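Box 3.1. Reading complex inputs
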Amino acid sequence: MLASGRGDAYCGYRFREHGLRILLIEDDAVLGEAVRDYVAGLGHAVDWMQTLDDGRTAARTVDYDLVLLDLRLPDGRGLALLTELRRAGAVTPVIILTAHDQISDRIEGLNSGADDYLVKPFNLGELGARMLAVARRYAASSLPVLEAGRLSIRLADRRVLRDGEPVDLSGREWAVLARLANRPDAIVSKGEIEEALYAFGSEIESNTVEVYVSRLRKKLGKDCVETLRGIGYRLGR
Amino acid sequence: MLASGRGDAYCGYRFREHGLRILLIEDDAVLGEAVRDYVAGLGHAVDWMQTLDDGRTAARTVDYDLVLLDLRLPDGRGLALLTELRRAGAVTPVIILTAHDQISDRIEGLNSGADDYLVKPFNLGELGARMLAVARRYAASSLPVLEAGRLSIRLADRRVLRDGEPVDLSGREWAVLARLANRPDAIVSKGEIEEALYAFGSEIESNTVEVYVSRLRKKLGKDCVETLRGIGYRLGR
DNA sequence: GACAAGCTGACAGTCGGCTGAACGGCGCCG
DNA sequence: CGGCGCCGTTCAGCCGACTGTCAGCTTGTC
């Protein structure tokens, strides 16, 4: 699968850094939810399955761009699914999630065709970084750069330039911007941004989104984000 | 991923004298351990695999800088792996380890694309020397000099200049810097740096990476390394 | 004008990261 | 052999960035 990168077979393969279809197979409710929300916040579409069976079905049905696979599942070993997929010729990149005491699993996982692994408990930011790395490995080159007014937003390497000058953004700030930049021209509701920022359960009862929009504007300029009163926000132009 | 298709910013081959990622494929426990410890002591990160299968997986997945390959393995001949790699277009230097009675293997090995060989039992110092020699041979093929702010990082000869002045770095310090310099613009998570430092299994639970980043900053200037809170580090601009 | 929706400055708590200091191992040198 | 210095690692305490919240203000709509 990793084989010769530019081979004809892969010519059509495109790895975008956002808007990916991602399959998450993880039985732990808390971790699963956290990962799902985080990854969704990066602008990807996440299907979260909690059993091996569901995961298998999903993987067979949908053409995912990336699979996040827990190795310890209630109804079987995740490794089995991985080998199965590879045997069936799937080239989809797979990142394995393991507990920290399962070194042998990790080796076996790489053996079975995984592209990378993460050791639990892991930092969500690190997950993002690994995903990017795997993405890079697959992407021929050319990072998507979004030009919006005086800004250029480089989703791939998490950078924003204003008039060519790099601007420092905090994690949340970037998350909000990325959520907007993910679909330029689209209107994103406050609720959607909130969902991208926080895990499902964590009820937030304040104007956090507004605050972050405000902070973004201070750093990036008034016009960087457009307000559509009563509807949501949109990336400025 | 020894294989060819290297999509991103790696231009050309790189060989440093410290902080290399080295793959050791050797089934003998005693010898393996000795070599691993010795090489790790030189400041490299060693992944030690005891079977051909694991070795193959590792070699395909990770970008090693050097492979130490025993030719007699429980589950097959090391030579097969070597030819396989070469056929896949891998340029990673390979040093072969053979018993003293396997002259034909040695010849065949060099024929198959090995860069050097060592006859068991060998002196660890000699191993070091061979590694250096191979390193030099590759370094000669001119590596890019990375310019990052006031720094120029010469991966080829393990040197860093700050405003043109050479700076002395210790082994680990260099390893961290090199890991970052390997992929300029990419965000490297703390875990990845740790991996580059300590190889697979050795779980380290302290802030070593932070310490080295701190020391690097002291020597190279505040801005040489950028912190992305909760995510990782990146080479300064 | 009245009301709703959105904006923003301020603030305190928290968490991650930074760094000085100390310790032990190792090699080098006298 | 003993002393010395460098290096790697650990630890603890400090520090600052980031965050969520709120109050009071502005803007927009009817």
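In summary: The longest strand of chain B covers residues 94-99.
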